[in-house]
Amino acid sequence: MISPLEFLQDLTDPDLAFLRKAVLVAVMSSVVCGVVGCHVVLRGMAFMGDAVAHAVFPGLAVAFLLQGSLVVGGVVAGVVTAVLVALFSQGRRLREDTVIGVFFVAAFALGIVIVSRAPGYTGTLEQFLFGSVAGVVDEDLYVVGAVGSGLLLVALLLHKEIVAVSLDREMARSARLPVLALDLVLYVMVTVAVVISVQTIGNVLVLALLITPAATARLLTDRLGPMMLVAPLVGSASAVVGVYLSWALDLPTGGAIVLVATVAFLVAWCLAPRHGLVARGRGASAGRRDVEQDQPFVGVPGRSGAVTGP
Amino acid sequence: MTTPAVRLDRVSVDLGGRPVLRDVALDLYRGELVALLGPNGAGKTTLLRTVLGLLRPRTGTVAVDGEVGYVPQRHEFAWDYPVSVEGAVLSGRVRRIGWFRQAGVADHQAVRAALDRVRMTHLRTRPVGELSGGQRQRVLVARALALDPQVLLLDEPFTGLDVPSQDHLTELFVELAAERAVLMTTHDLVAAVHTCTRLCLLDGSVVALGTPDELHDPAPWMRTFGASPTSPLLRALGLVPQEAL
């Protein structure tokens, strides 16, 4: 097994440019997914995230067949599914999660059928589903960088409105916020975050990049601002360590990244200040501490990174 | 009297094709604390949502003079969200702050004033998830006050609260009603009779409307709540039907 130092050398090796690109794409994806994932986790829409992740599959398949842009194909499919879910769950007869259950599996099935028509589909399918460090080209870097930056900008511009809807839909409606439109914006954000992450981490596992770092961050802080910094950090650290393990031990990239992120989550669950297993075990209920001291958690992802590293 | 802060004129509202409110006429004036009383399904929340403009009346008109502050039921709010008391109150001003803009000095001043008003300033940095039920209710009231509304609509503010919390909130509502019109739905009839300036008995339409003193006849109470002449409700309210004497 190569050491982390050798891994760093490999990253700078001109012959291994694809590895560097893979790490860059994985880190950029993690940052975007971390920020969007905070909204997903806090609104309890993990299932919707899962649905969108699967729903982009037919779009990616069609884009692949037509040699078109994966990002465009995926976003179109994801948005169409999200809109279908929003429309079909307007009535009272079916709950939203039921409608999601119908459409995301249908979209995924459509993707499998489409891909099966392509010559030599098995290799491609596996890459779609489980991700790969190979095959990241320069163009991908620019697309992911540009699209990701745009997404973060939208998240910043609409931050307080999206938060207001998450906090209290009834109040948001009474304040005349366009709740349905803001919901759709969030769905599209989830879709785009998923699409740009699919290449390295894969379609099946991309949900973890959206949910696990944000959930880890939630355990570590009671403030949204710090949470939105910690989640991308946890995601990025998991991505780098995951690609390293994948490279060193010849593991599937997506699987390695997700498992590292999961270890970070478990560590946070045990060691989180105040609410963690250890803190509770020490009888942390010894009085309410002052909330002003609520910020010092940003250093923790580094700690969890060290725990999960070699 | 002066012009009403809210005027409902023969308002009928349907929900999903089913008539919920019929011919409701109700004027609210500044300085009033009005209790909206009725059984479940009487249309209390529907009436509040109509005043807010969230529901369009089938017939009749709703006229509101000034800003309306809304305090929905406590369970509408995501109390597990990582936000401080201050942040929650500031979220009441999102629309006022405007798209693509950040909260300014005026916004933070309004938040501080609203928190002072509900006496929650000392807890302003606490995460909302760590508040008691009464404190949570105060946060929601402060959030509505952050817009300095002329009309305050409270939807079942006492539900699930203990007696001391209810009493403190009642004091606060009386205080707030001094400068604005406050309309509150509640199932705590006894407290409403003792603290509100007027009572509106609602069961699809307005059964009775007046000061507590004017509502001494048990008949409208019995009709609104489907209570029998021997119901403990009437005794608790100090209303004894003539025939039972």
Describe the model.
The complex is a heterodimer of chains A (310) and B (245). Chain A is an all-alpha fold and 310 residues long. Chain A has one domain: ABC transporter involved in vitamin B12 uptake, BtuC (Orthogonal Bundle), CATH 1.10.3470.10. Helices cover 76% and strands 0% of the residues of chain A. Chain A is built from 15 helices and no strands. In chain A, helix 4 packs across helix 10. With 245 residues, chain B is α/β, with parallel strands linked by helices. Chain B has 9 helices and 9 strands. In chain B, the strands form 2 sheets. In chain B, strands 5-6-7-3-8-9 form a 6-stranded mixed beta sheet, sandwiched between helices. The relative contact order of chain B is 0.17. The model of chain B has no long low-confidence stretch (mean pLDDT 93). The chains are: A mainly alpha (310), B alpha/beta (245). Chains A and B meet through helix 8 and helix 9 of A and helix 3 of B. Chain B: Belongs to the ABC transporter superfamily. Chain B: Keywords: ATP-binding, Nucleotide-binding, Transport. Chain B: It comes from Sanguibacter suaedae.
Question: Can you summarize this structure?
Answer:
Chain A is mainly α and 310 residues long. Chain A has 15 helices and no strands.
DSSP strand content of chain B = 15-25%
Q: What gyration radius of chain A follows from the Cα positions, in whole Å?
A: 20 Å
The CATH class of chain A turns out to be Mainly Alpha
What can be said about the biggest beta sheet of chain A? none
Percentage of residues in helical conformation of chain A: over 70%
Overall geometric form of chain A: globular
Order of helices and strands of chain A: HHHHHHHHHHHHHHH
CATH architecture label of chain A: Orthogonal Bundle
Which two chains share the most extensive interface? A-B, 29 and 31 residues
**Which structural class fits the helix and strand makeup of chain B?**
alpha/beta
SS elements, strand count of chain A: 0
Question: What value does the average pLDDT of chain B take?
Answer: 93
Describe the biggest sheet of chain B?
Answer: 6 strands, mixed
Give the full name of the CATH homologous superfamily of chain A: ABC transporter involved in vitamin B12 uptake, BtuC
- Helix count from the secondary structure assignment of chain B: 9
Q: Level of helix content of chain B?
A: 25-40%
Strand content of chain A: under 5%
Give the SSE order of chain B as H and E letters. EEEHEEHHHHEHEHEEHH
Distance between the termini of chain A: 10 Å
Task: Indicate the multimeric state.
Answer: heterodimer
Number of strands of chain B: 9
